[in-house]
Design brief:
By secondary structure, the chain is an alpha+beta fold. It is 24% helix and 40% strand. It is rod-shaped and about 185 Å long.
Amino acid sequence: MKKMKLKQLITVLTATLCLFALTACQNAPAQEALAPEAAKDEVQEKQEPAEEEYYEEEEYLPEEDLSEAIDESIDMDSSYEDMSPVGKWYTDGYDEESNWAMSYVIELTDDGKATCTGWRNKDTGTYTADGDHVTITFDDCQTDEAGEGWKPVEGFVYTVEMDLAGDEADITIDAPDVISNLDNGTLYRQAGKGGSGSGDAGEDADIADGEYITDETYIGDISEDGSTVTIETALYHYDDDWNPVLDYEEKTYVLPTSDNCKCVIYTEEKEESPVAEQIEFINEFLQGNSGLPITFKIKDNQLTEISFSS
């Protein structure tokens, strides 16, 4: 009985040892398999993380801001155009009919040339522009002396400073002497703005065909090429008893001359020649105000003959 129990005990111990050994053998490969993974994790921990690539994002204006930027660009272009001095600049109250002696116009062209005309003055020169400031230099000046016609004023130079504000400009004149009625003040790019004048540089003729005489207080001039006579006067005709009858009220008329317009001068004899050959004489008569009426023959709103008695 005791031997039987001893054998059973040995059998149990043997089985237990075999089971333990089997378990140990199964666990050993698993631990060896884990070793490479652990090593790999250790290597990854030691490595520095890779730097991330950085891209700068482009900034885009919102649609509303973009629209405002475009509008501002357009406004800048418009402002530049507004600062352009090119054009005809008229004195305040410009009116050749009722304000003849104080009506002047300065014309600036896009090639840098400048002219100033009015009353008995005709000046030319050049200008420079810096933003809204313009400097004009007149170095070719002429005056029209009664009975003498246009004469240059030798060596006379003067400047006009203009400060632009749209279609208005303040002017300051720097001249060594006074040869005209042009004065400091405001000019307007369109005639008649800011003043009481009509803004017309004389009215184009709309006169019936016929023969007319001027009044005795006329004043005017003829263009350098003889193509136009500008005159401030009333126009009359004589009735059968040689009494003057008013046809057209006193105002400034712009009368174009026909291609074959004649100048007739009555002295002891009748002298007749093309108007273009008598520019100086006609101007002396128109501006000298001799007190003797001038006779105009008009057809199709053009002068075909100008007659003088002397």
